[in-house]
Amino acid sequence: MSSTGPKQAIFASLAEVAQALGHAHRLELLEHVGQGMRSVEELSARANLSFANTSRHLQILRRARLVDTERRGKQVLYRLAGDTEVVELMRALGRVGERNVAEVNRIMTDYFHARDALEAVSRKDLISRLRDGLVTILDVRPEDEFALGHLPGALNIPLGELEHRLCELPTDREVIAYCRGPYCILSFEAVATLRARGYLVRRLEDGYPEWKAAGLPIEARA
Predict the structure, then answer these.
(1) Residue 167 is among the residues annotated as catalytic for this protein
(2) Which residues contact 171 (CB under 8 A, 6 or more apart)?
(3) pTM for the full predicted model
(4) DSSP run (H or E) holding 79
(5) Exactly one of 47, 179, 201, 213 is catalytic; which is it?
(6) pLDDT tens digit string along 103-154?
């Protein structure tokens, strides 16, 4: 029997996508691109990679149609090639890892759960609480990421500034913190910091890219 039928051709193409995902740096770059359109220079600085290495990884992601580009003058910006599909692909990869990979489970327990063992707030629950005006949403990402897009009404206090800006957080209602995604440490660290100071605080179940990919309202600075 021929091994080059339509099913095999599809599997070969899917294997290229899987290969593009097969590097930690490329997964991190997808997380950063998920915050909004970025140049190679910006992504290089954010991921702490050389310009050449960042560019190479982005080209691999582009060939697999996981990212697209947009030219603005002399600058080339990268964005996810379909927020919903790529974000869900990343989330599915995470779920498989959490269920099947011992090292992922160990890190989740030793680092993430040690800082926040409470169940995270779901998007559905947060929408309900927002409608009733019961919570303050805290975005602990850097200011430039917040400017690209954020949850409606969110207060932006980057993690590094949190201890010096506690006076901006109300003490009479719950704070819901979020950042870049389910494995972004910023919201976990923020929750640990605020709980130690007596705040009623929980995390959103994931982050800004997942909220946006779900088709929920977002805001951005002009």
Answers:
(1) no
(2) 198, 199
(3) 0.91
(4) strand 75-80
(5) 179
(6) 999 999 999 888 888 889 999 999 999 888 889 999 999 999 999 999 999 9
